[in-house]
């Protein structure tokens, strides 16, 4: 299991986005992973989902980050 933020973020992404983000420079991956961690920490709705299913909360936060990247 990935322990660093980038690895955890990549694991939470759907396969299409995972491939696209994995091809980006490490600095960009770290920026996106930071946004993902912030999304997880700041959204109360995700806190509730995290209690029920941590992987689902991580996937939803990753989806939101990638949607903003548009």
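-> sequence recovered:
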């Amino acid at each position: 299991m990935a322990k660093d933020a980038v690895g955890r973020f990549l694991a939470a992404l759907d396969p299409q986005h995972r491939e696209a983000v994995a091809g980006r420079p490490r600095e960009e991956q770290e920026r996106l992973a930071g946004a993902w961690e912030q999304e997880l920490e700041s959204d109360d709705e995700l806190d509730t989902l995290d209690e029920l299913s941590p992987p689902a909360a991580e996937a939803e936060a990753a989806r939101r980050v990638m949607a903003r990247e548009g």
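The first helix runs from residue 5 to 12.
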